[in-house]
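INTERNAL TRANSFER SHEET
From: sequence group
To: structure group
Subject: Oxidoreductase, aldo/keto reductase family protein

Please process the attached sequence and return the structure record in the designated field. Keep the field labels unchanged so the import script can parse them.
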Amino acid sequence: MPRFGLGVWKTDNRTSRDSVAAAIKNGYLAIDTARQYGNEQGTGAGIKLGLEQAGLKRSDLFVTTKLYNGEQGDYDQVSKAFENQLKDLGLDYVDLYLMHWPVDKTYIESYHAMEKLYREGKVRAIGVSNFDNDRMEKLLEEAEIIPTVNQMEFNPTNQEHEILAFDQSHDIEMTAWSPLGGGESLTNPVIDALAKKYDRSAAQIILRWEWQRDIITVVKSTHEKRIIQNSQIFDFSLSDEDVQKINELDQGRRGLWYDDFQWHNPNGKVANGIDQWPDTRK
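Return from structure group:
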């Protein structure tokens, strides 16, 4: 799995198509989407276009998508959901299939269904997303295949030390979503000072820090210039001292909001519907 790729959360199908194509054309070899994002059709169109423009084959690209919470369940339900996702993506297989959230009533059963998809060769690897240590431990007790990755929010102000340590102890890689941490990280004085020191953008400093921390990143951008700029992190290194400066920005917050998440708490405030975007095929 490439350790650096493009994510397409909160982009419509047309924008997703254009950003994915631009990313592949400019050297990105990993694309991350999800059923919940509502843009698998656009992502698939971008993959086709980008591969054509770059002169690459499908096997050159690593594609990740995710099982939606509302489609978790037994094998028949998960398999049907997955086949619909393949159709929308226009692909014969995906390289990595993640469980988007650990819905308490179904995540064990759903993971077993994902294991069967893996054995059938429909997915090349399986993993999870947004799993805290309690849920991951329960999953590992039941799983026959150890998840390859756990995709979590990870950025300078939210470093999830306990989850990272637990996952690493079980040979589970962490993939960062929201790797730039929004304005809180991008405008941090420490990051700003390092950007000036290395003559780089704040985003490049953060992404290089995550690279040196051995965190897989999927970074979102919808502008080709920024897509290119974000990937230009391999011709410089942060000193150990500067890596530690960013390490010390962690605020110790728990990044997950299980108590407010409706899939866990019927009275929760955080919904999780599928974003519906225009269909690029029309």
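Handover comment: Residues 4-260 form a domain with the TIM Barrel fold (CATH 3.20.20.100). The chain has eleven helices and eight strands.
Transfer complete.
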